[in-house]
Amino acid sequence: MEVLNGFVENIVFKSEDTGYVVCRIRNEKTLISAVGTVPFLKEGQNVKLTGYWTVHKQFGNQFNIQDYEELLPNSLDGIEKYLSAGIIHGIGPVTAKKIIERFGEETLDIMENHIERLMEIEGIGEKKFQIIYESYIEQQGLKDIILYFHKHGVTNNQCVKIYKKFGPNARQIVSNNPYILCDEISGIGFKTADRIAMSIGIEKNSDFRIQSGIKYVMNQFCSAGNTFMPKNNIIEECENNLLISKELIEKNIYDMAAQQKIIVENINGTEVGFLLQYYYCELGVTSKIITLGLQQIQTINSDVDFEINVFEKEQNIKFAESQREAIIGAFNNGIEIITGGPGTGKTTIIKAIIHIYENNGMKVILGAPTGRAAKRMTESTGREAKTIHRLLEMGISEDDESVFEKGESSPLDCDVIIIDEASMIDIILMQNLLKAINLGTRLIIVGDVDQLPSVGPGNVLKDLIESDYIKVVRLKEIFRQGAESLIVVNAHRINEGQMPLLNQKDRDFFFISEDNQERIANTIMDLINRRLPKFNKSWNKLKDMQVLTPMRKGVLGVTNLNTKLQEMFNASSKDKKEKTSRDIIFREGDKVMQTKNNYTLKWIRVSGYGENEGVGVFNGDLGFIESIDEERKTLTIIFDEERKVIYDFNFLDELDLAYATTIHKSQGSEFKVVIIPVFMGSPFLMNRNLLYTGITRAKQLVVVVGFQKALMYMINNTNSIERYSSLKYRIRDIITKDEFEE
């Protein structure tokens, strides 16, 4: 090994995730090229490098860095360059010069031992000092953590999350339980945690390791939308991950059940394992649904049939028998479900229910799972609708955990709650909603059960319908306004297994046949950039048009289409700042999507109706990057409903480009124009349910591009990935027991 001392003159390339760097180092003799994994290397640093020389075919001699040490500068000029390099947030060239002028050769000692004295400098107030202080302390703590975890394959961003989660004692906490990383740090899987565990001497057959593995595979399984995992699946997955015997795994499953770490039950003849959270959520939902169904409800003073007739006259409409049944059911039951596809009159029914209740002096509140769905509900009813999270007044506790102010001790103040787009509600959100509903309050659930199920765990709407306990009204008839739209007509045809009506003049549903994936991609680009804007000049290319694709990978996957569309609409420019994360370039002006629920992100509303500030940005929320701040290491996004959110660079793994997105991620959204590529792929992705969901996201136009045989295949394919949930069985069991006891 050779040792070189030098000055970092230029960083040619740096991966934020891995810390791999290509740089130019100036030493006493010459300028050399150096490469290696050195996460804290910055321009302006004096360094001592340990490594060896290699010869690159294209770039010639390179010094391969194996270890490095930062050498603090000993001249005033060197200290100024060091502070100006952007190593510490809040200190740029101007501030660095002021610090040197004030403290001179004492500067580094001041930074190390008396950093609060920086507030003596003009321009550094309490707010800016806090940024500098937190950055400096974090840099010191992070160095130790990154150097320790890097050798186990943990990326820089993950190291930052470890530090933010566990603080300066992160190494000790993880050493006590390496598997905590699987549960707490996004992107770290069992194998990485297991490598760390093996390196510190945890035995392969230890109960601690096996039980951590069991919990990990159950978490992974439930992250796909399941609330439980069959015991045989747990054993099989653990056997693959842990490389130990089935007997040891099964023993530990039962040991964990005995210790109440997991729950083992028989569901519909199969022995299964539950994580505690989902088990108690299902129990809670079951109990409250039964209670709401049995409750004594307040009757209204007027005749409902008469009120419906009056509403029909006022609106110049005539309700179908099923619609009238749905409205009457909302007054005769403590809980009711209304389900139907587009154009079946769900919105008109909601308006009638609100009208009659309010005429009788009763308070109605409206909610939906997403901001977009709540906004549509507001526009269609003329009454304010809120997201369920806002209804429940979500906030942040002292421990930075999300909490709901509304619950059993502080229920929602109303007589009736109407929830729309209920197919998107997972078991956790439903449990929190039901906890906040007082006895005597009616609950009306509206949704389309043929849509894809929630992204989160459970199959709530479908399970509630199939429990055979709740009053359910199914709307199937398409009404006049809906019948004029081929989007509506074809959605129903597809749902019934029929080919859609295609390419009728002056209509809103078109199919463009292309025979290979590259041509499909090129046609999509041409549609958005040229043909559709020419067809309707009022459509905004970015806000009104959305590409929805069945999958993430491949020529027609989200990743590739986003790269192409970004280059078309928001190409690299000297006027636009950029930030790369996970090989994705985020650029000012980009259309982006939040890809996971973050209950603690704070937002401020910059315009529009509603609260001025709040917390929570959720899976599927869309926005545009307003600015990127390299000094503060932040990225600012304006989301739907004009909510401004500031992201730390280390949390960009929660974002993705959104020029194209998966159909699953589009749930609850609505776009004027939807473009869907269809091609032969996985039978579990290319199915009727997915196609139906994608088409029903469109308001004014659908364009399907691709193979006609793939379109036919999707319509005929009713296979989908089975979702494991037990809510309907639990409700049925209670009903059966009650009937037996009677």
TrEMBL record:
Residues 332-450 form the AAA+ ATPase domain. InterPro entries: AAA+_ATPase, Coronavir_polyprotein_1ab, Hlx-hairpin-Hlx_DNA-bd_motif, P-loop_NTPase, RecD2, RecD2-like_HHH, RecD2_N_OB, RecD2_SH13. GO terms for molecular function: 5'-3' DNA helicase activity; ATP binding; DNA binding; hydrolase activity; single-stranded DNA helicase activity. HAMAP family: RecD2. Keywords: ATP-binding, DNA-binding, Helicase, Hydrolase, Isomerase, Nucleotide-binding. Residues 83-102, 116-135, 180-199 form the Helix-hairpin-helix DNA-binding motif class domain. The gene is recD2. It is an enzyme of class 5 (isomerase). This is ATP-dependent RecD2 DNA helicase. GO terms for cellular component: exodeoxyribonuclease V complex. It comes from Clostridium beijerinckii. Its EC number is 5.6.2.3.
